[in-house]
Design a protein that fits this description.
This protein has about 230 residues and is α/β, with parallel strands linked by helices. The chain is built from eight helices and seven strands.
């Protein structure tokens, strides 16, 4: 690779890191302030409380998950809308991890029996001794590089109980027309992970078809990884 190619590669990496920092540290905080004022439970520009509740309801139903009295973890939980729905409707014990103090304040206000921590996701996964039957990362895992995404999946699968499910929502592929995902994954990414670890089951579906939600990318998918 010539000097131009190296300089271009460095610029791309720097741009990606800046975009990720702006998205997580600045934009998400603006949405959190908006949500506190308006009561909207979604830390997203184009989604609302009803959208999140509908998506988590359909996902649990599609996975035939019996979660009563079981631990559910949302990594990048926002204001806890999905966890609160699962607590009320399915009887889960809610766990949430987020970087925003304001989001966690709203989580604790809604779910006094929950466990909510302000912590880096990877650090939490390395430190926790809890196990789970349902783990959510909706629109969050794409903020990490591909190597870190693989590591996160590996750590979560170790924390899941048998037949537990890891929901990766708003999955975007590299060939998508949507260009705002920081680290989209290549086609075959999840199939490769399951080939390397036969104890992981894979299901994937179009969110537009199942949720009726294509507000960001009509081709975005949900990925369900199950511990056999």
């Amino acid at each position: 690779m010539g000097s131009w190619g190296r300089r271009h590669g460095v610029r791309v990496v720097m741009y990606t890191r800046i975009k990720n920092f702006f998205h997580i540290r600045f934009l998400m905080n603006i949405y959190s302030i908006r949500n506190l004022i308006t009561g909207n439970g979604a830390v997203w520009l184009k989604l609302n409380t009803s959208d999140l509740e509908h998506m988590v309801k359909e996902t649990v139903s599609r996975g035939s998950l019996d979660l009563k009295g079981k631990n559910a973890l949302d990594l990048g939980c926002g204001t806890g809308t999905m966890l609160d729905f699962l607590r009320r409707e399915k009887g889960v014990v809610p766990y949430g991890v987020d970087l925003s103090r304001l989001n966690l304040y709203q989580c604790r206000k809604k779910m006094r029996n929950g466990i909510f921590l302000r912590k880096d996701i990877i650090q939490y996964l390395e430190d926790t001794e809890d196990s789970f039957d349902f783990v959510i990362m909706y629109g969050v895992i794409g903020c990490f590089t591909l190597e870190k995404q693989k590591y996160i999946i590996e750590r979560i699968m170790k924390l899941l109980n048998k037949d537990g499910c890891f929901w990766i929502g708003a999955n975007i592929y590299t060939d998508s027309s949507y260009k705002f995902q920081t680290y989209p994954v290549p086609r075959g990414f999840y199939e490769g992970i399951c080939q390397d670890n036969p104890s992981i089951g894979l299901e994937e579906f179009s969110e537009l078809e199942v949720f009726g939600n294509g507000k960001y990318d009509p081709d975005q998918t949900t990925v369900l990884l199950t511990k056999k």
